[in-house]
Design brief:
The chain is α/β, with parallel strands linked by helices. The protein is 44% helix and 15% strand. Helix 1 (28-40) crosses helix 12 (243-264) and helix 11 crosses helix 12. It is globular, with a radius of gyration of 18 Å. The mean pLDDT is 92.
């Protein structure tokens, strides 16, 4: 069992929200960067929200940080701190119909992903987004490591329950050599069974390339150009890598951009086209 189901969503008039979610460490922010890079090329106004503090998404659009409850909130008796922290995010979703060129992107952290089911349920985001004339695309990164796969499975099942009118899509990140050895009862394959809309596969890149991409404050497509000496110089300047290792970063960025573009193509969603 190594064939993965391709994405099978069509007829979507508008994707108003894109969310990356998995309670485990699983390349969520990298996936958010890939998605932002893709949709940004359609000229959409990207409004980006994130739980962790990092600058990786800054080249893609305006970034707003969502503060999770701190120890002093919890011990101080503010049991609703996490809910309050997401109010501004919910208020933005309420305005999507007024901003047809806007896409809201949420890059969740591991701890925050464990809260999303409750937050989305309390906020009634399933019906809210439909009332705004759009759908959510919830991307769940998936690896062959057991803990990440189990986290993805739990996330898939919860999001499919809470956001049942939207698209919950696993994004398996792997090398082809990893799949044949996975036993059939592995959580990775259980996620595949939950993937009613198919998947968007992405290649697994090396730790060196991943680290390099994290450190370069540019759109992925800007550093992925295989013929650009300027892109190579930019990578070297921010990473300290030599020419060859910087070239590997550019190639990795290119593989992510191309992989996502190919995987999401069946969606047929091309804003402004």
């Amino acid at each position: 069992m190594t064939e993965l189901p391709l994405l099978s969503i069509s007829g979507v008039e508008r994707v108003g929200a894109v969310i990356t979610a998995n309670p485990k460490k699983s390349c969520k922010s990298t996936l958010a960067c890939v998605a932002a890079n893709h949709f940004g090329h359609f000229g959409l106004e990207l409004s980006i929200w994130q739980h962790d503090r990092h600058e990786r998404l800054s080249p893609c659009g305006k970034v707003t940080h969502i503060e999770l409850a701190r120890a002093k909130d919890v011990f101080g008796g503010d049991s609703a701190a996490d809910l309050k922290g997401h109010e501004a995010f919910g208020e933005e979703l309420e305005t999507l119909a007024e901003h047809p060129n806007r896409m809201t992107l949420l890059d969740s952290s591991g701890p925050a992903a464990a809260l999303l089911g409750s937050i989305f349920s309390f906020g009634r985001f399933n019906n809210l987004l439909l009332s705004q004339g759009c759908h959510a695309l919830i991307l769940v990164p998936l690896r062959t490591t057991t803990d990440v796969a189990e986290g993805a499975l739990a996330m898939m099942m919860e999001m499919k329950t809470v956001m049942h009118d939207h698209f919950v899509v696993p994004v398996p990140i792997f090398t082809p050599a990893e799949l044949p050895g996975l036993e059939r009862k592995h959580a990775f394959w259980q996620v595949m069974k939950q993937a009613e809309h198919g998947v968007i596969p992405l290649p697994l890149i090396s730790p060196s390339a991943a680290s390099g991409i994290e450190r370069v404050p540019r759109l992925l497509s800007e550093i992925a150009d295989p013929d650009s000496e300027e892109a190579l110089k930019t990578i070297r300047r921010y990473t300290g890598y030599g020419r060859v290792e910087a070239g590997a970063v550019a190639a990795a960025a290119g593989s992510l951009v191309a992989g996502f573009s190919k995987g999401i193509a069946p969606l047929g969603y091309t804003p402004g086209a």
